TrEMBL record:
Function: Catalyzes the interconversion of methylthioribose-1-phosphate (MTR-1-P) into methylthioribulose-1-phosphate (MTRu-1-P).
The gene coding this protein: mtnA
Catalytic activity: 5-(methylsulfanyl)-alpha-D-ribose 1-phosphate = 5-(methylsulfanyl)-D-ribulose 1-phosphate
GO molecular function, one term: S-methyl-5-thioribose-1-phosphate isomerase activity
Family the UniProt entry places it in: Belongs to the EIF-2B alpha/beta/delta subunits family. MtnA subfamily.
InterPro entries according to UniProt: IF-2B-related, IF-M1Pi, IF_2B-like_C, Initiation_fac_2B_a/b/d, M1Pi_N, NagB/RpiA_transferase-like
Highest taxon of source: Bacteria
Protein name: Methylthioribose-1-phosphate isomerase
Keywords: Amino-acid biosynthesis, Isomerase, Methionine biosynthesis
Biochemical pathway: Amino-acid biosynthesis; L-methionine biosynthesis via salvage pathway; L-methionine from S-methyl-5-thio-alpha-D-ribose 1-phosphate: step 1/6
EC number: 5.3.1.23
Species for this entry: Desmospora activa DSM 45169
Pfam families: IF-2B (PF01008)
Active site, UniProt feature: 245
Length: 356
């Protein structure tokens, strides 16, 4: 697997410093580039809940560092206190958002490392916990790039690609998942035209995807979510590529609300519909999409986006943050190990075992 980490022009989503975990405050993009310094797991949790850091892989990486922040200043002599705090902090971080399985995957991986090194002195154990969080971050950048490479045979110069939400460098350690092939295509000199769905209600598509692609000099056109069908009918789109928060064992995929509608539209227009999925987003313990917990967010995201009232006071609102696309609408799922095609149950079961 490639480990080259290219410097993309947009600011990095997470960085570890001696002071603590610095998170790019994605709520302020594209107008302002500022970082939140997290010195405690509570601040990390709050950043996850309020979408300062978002995107399944980035949430997992942030939580892993959050776990370290919870124990780093504990006395090296209180073993019981250490283990109690570690478990309590993990439980607290785990509940920050329910849909992205990367969150529990990353926490479980750090806990497993701690358990494996249980007999070491606490000072050393703490260092190992930090190293595990750093490894998760570094591996994420490498596997995102590999996903991009694995996508390239499915794409060609000159095509139009529709994407939804933000599954780019901002949602990961680097490159992104759905956007990784676009960065690699650019490196090859291909001219790919990207259509970025605005992605109501929180506008990850316009605030983040359009921003990061524009920074990289990639040809991007912003459209409202309800324009996707029209663009397909006009023959502008030759493939849809989106990321995921969780892939069930049968290949059903949870992703940002609106993804399912795109898959139906793509099917109606005979356009391939691709999922970019790092294996930490694949949950073999969740049998089908029906078993994936779907986060419901505050009604104010819809009624008061950007502090302007856009609905009558007191109106009923329903705000699910994700939907599930059934496996039968998905042309292929591209992982760091390669491209998997239906039947997904068998293909997912046959993936190499990954740390969970
Ligand atoms: C590589 S990010 C994949 C998904 O997490 C992404 O597509 C998405 O839906 C993010 O939703 P968000 O609510 O912004 O965290």
């Amino acid at each position: 697997m490639s480990t080259i980490l290219s410097q993309l022009p947009h600011p990095v989503s997470l960085r570890w410093t001696e002071e603590g975990l610095q998170l790019l405050d994605q709520r302020r993009l594209p107008l302002e580039t500022s970082y939140i310094t997290c010195r405690s797991p509570q601040v990390v949790r709050d950043a996850i809940v309020t979408l300062a850091v978002r995107g399944a892989p980035a949430i997992g990486i942030a939580a892993a560092y959050g776990l370290y922040l919870g124990i780093r200043h504990l006395p090296d002599t209180d073993t019981d206190g250490f283990w109690q705090t570690l478990q309590r902090t993990a439980a607290d971080l785990r509940s920050a958002r329910p849909t992205a399985v990367n969150l529990v995957w990353a926490l479980d991986r750090v806990l497993l490392r701690a358990e494996t090194d249980r007999n070491l002195p606490l000072s050393q154990l703490k260092t190992h916990i930090l190293e595990e969080a750093q490894a998760i971050q570094q591996e994420d950048a490498a596997l995102c790039r590999q996903i991009g490479e694995n996508f390239l045979p499915l794409l060609h110069d000159g095509m139009g690609i529709l994407t939804h939400c933000n599954a780019g460098g901002l949602a990961t350690a680097a490159y992104g998942t759905a956007l990784a092939p676009l960065y690699l295509a650019k490196e090859k000199g291909w001219n790919i035209h990207v259509y970025a769905d605005e992605t109501r209600p929180v506008l990850q598509g316009s605030r983040l995807t359009a921003y990061e692609l524009q920074q990289a000099g990639i040809d991007v056109t912003l459209i409202c979510d309800n324009m996707a069908g029209h663009m397909m009918q006009q023959g502008k789109i030759q493939a849809v590529i989106v990321g995921t928060d969780r892939v069930a064992a049968n290949g059903d995929v949870a992703n940002k609300i609106g993804t399912y509608s795109l898959a139906v539209l793509a099917k109606a227009h005979h356009i391939p519909f691709y999922i970019a999925a790092p294996t930490p987003s694949i949950d073999r313990n969740t049998p089908t999409g029906d078993d994936i917990p779907i986060e419901e967010r505050d009604a104010a995201e819809i009624t008061h986006g950007w502090n302007t009232a856009t609905a009558p006071p007191g109106v009923n609102v329903y705000n699910p943050a994700f939907d599930v696309t059934p496996a039968n609408l998905i042309t292929a799922i591209v992982t760091e190990y390669g491209v998997i095609k239906p039947p997904y149950l068998e293909a997912i079961a046959a993936l190499p075992t990954f740390k969970r």
